[in-house]
Structures are given as structure tokens and as C-alpha cells.
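WARN retry 2 of 3 for item q-0093 after timeout on previous attempt; input resubmitted unchanged.
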Amino acid sequence: MTGSGLSDRQHGGGASAPEPAALASPPALACVVAVPARLESSRLPNKVMADIGGQPMLQRVLLRCRLAQRPAAVVLCTDSEVLRAAAEGWGFPVLMTSASCSSGSERLASVVEALIARAGATGGALAAARSVIINVQGDQPFIDPAVIDAMALEFERRTPTPEVLTPIYRMPPEKIHDPNVVKTLLAADGRALYFSRSAIPHVRGEDPQHWHAHAPYWGHVGIYGYRADVLARWNGLPHSPLEHTEKLEQLRLIEAGLTVGTFSVEGDFLSVDTAAQLEQARRLAAA
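OK item q-0093 returned
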């Protein structure tokens, strides 16, 4: 099931969902969507080119991103000539990266100056501080363009400009204990305290099947918005044991002391990491 729009609760900002007219106004910040993708995948080889309803998954992601109104461009960042040729054939610009990148964020950081230029920003360090790079994973075939626009608007609304923002959603009970679905633990002001594949918080003394009745559980939509000057620091951040343990790149930011803000959206969100999730995506596309 895809996201159905923004929640009335906007974490850390207290703002309501943007009206359609607001989305038509020129953005105060330069913004670009960057989709990092590789052909190889340890759990689901070649997944970004898997067929979903007659289209490769990556093509679906790029086309959904293009529907967002605020970003100046949608750019594929990859080390694969196969993906480069495919994306260019679909009409999308491509930035080639090293095959040694260990995460999507590292891949984008390696071409951050080119992404700033694609966003339409100029002016060196000032351009980096006034540019937003929205990282959309290549395995989210039903990403909601409204969520991308909402993220851009959240960057514009908040003062000072956030370092990192990410959308979250209230999780249905059946997903709370699924290790393939990432959970987010929040501070009272909406900052992300931690991300985990485990259910957090742990509800002591209660049957895990009933935890949802005792605490809110927030899922991570899986896209990140970076202020470009923050993304440029990625490779200089300390080694993160938490990132290595959970296999979640955003924990590098948390462990380094960077602030990851959140805002809530309505709906359920699917990232395709397993064969079962791929079949779920195919059923959704056929519905």
C-alpha cells in the first residue's frame, strides 16, 4: 500500500500539510532528487531491474520522483553501465560513481558537487548550505511524490535549515516485529533518537503481540533529505559500529551526533528488500 499523504502531525515543526497552491510557488532552497542504485544486491540480486507490472522497479522509482513539483531534477547515481544506459533511455540524467561505495549516502556524497549543480545552485559554500539533496532509494517503486515535496517544504519552513530530515509513519501492528521494516524511536521534539530493525521501544512485561496497544511505533519511510554541506561531510564521519551492526546507514549520522529531524506522513510504505516484498509489490501493481 502506498502512502496516502501527509499527517496533520508534523514532527519538530508543528506545521500542517502543504496546500496544492503552496507546491506551485518557487522553492526558497535549491533541491534535487538523487536515486542511488547498484545492480548487485546480496539478498535480491538485480532487484532494481525486477519487473513490476511491466516496468523495471528502478524506472517506476524515477518516474514517481519526477512527479514531485519542488525538485529541479531527478538524477540516478550508479556504478552500473547497465543502469546508466537504462536510465538515460528513460530520459533521466545519470552521474557515475565508484563501485566501492558502501551505502547510498556515500554514493551521493561522492558526487555532491555535481548534484548541487543539478539543483541549480551556484556560489560555492553558500550554495552547499542552501541546497537540499533528497535521497530516494531505488527499491521504493510506490514512493509518494507528495512526500518528496513535503520534505522540501519542511526544509524551507524550519529555521535554522535542518541538517537531515526523514519521513516517518505510524506502523500497523503486523509490521512491528518484522526485521525487514525499519523502526524509528523519537525524542519529544521529533528528533530521531535511534533506528532499528528490532521493535523499539521494548514493552516490558507485555506479550509482544500486544505492544502496539502500549506505545506508538514509527516506521521509517526510507528516504533522507540532506543539506548538501552536511552530505559532503559523509566520508569524514567516524566509523559507526551501530551502522555496521544493524546495516542501517542513517545510524552513522546518529552516532556522529548529527541531528536527524522527522516529519510524519500517512499511509503504509514498501521498500523491496526480499523476494516476498517483491511479490507484494507485483500484487499492488496488478491491483
